[in-house]
Amino acid sequence: xxxxITFLLWASKPSLEIEIPNGESYxxxxxxxxxxxxxxxxxxxxxxxxxxxxxxxxxxxxxxxxAExxxxxxERAYLSEAxxxxxxxxxxxxxxxxxCGAKxxxxxxxxxxxKGxxxxxxxLRDADVRGASFDDD
Length: 137
Fold this sequence. Notes:
Elements: E1 2-6, E2 15-19, H1 26-39
């Protein structure tokens, strides 16, 4: 079965056609489509991805500046070197996510779960982390 997904007005490749293998869920399709968009260097600024399930997704180097990711499940996602400046990640699940080298300047992380997330050379200047959960140790 083939499905056409219209991504974003801002994407350099605004629509993708993906074949859904038997037994694969819509969530898996969303994850794969977004990974493909990132690999095509699509511009995902201002994307509305509220509540999307992107567990384990490879979003390395993604341009998600000012993206709406409130309540998104990004557990164990690869977000190294991603541009998330001014993104809304309120209440997002980022447990175990790779945020090494990510740009989180001005990002809204209120109430986000960041337990076990990897931070190295991550720009958190002016990020709002009120109520966010970090490792206790």
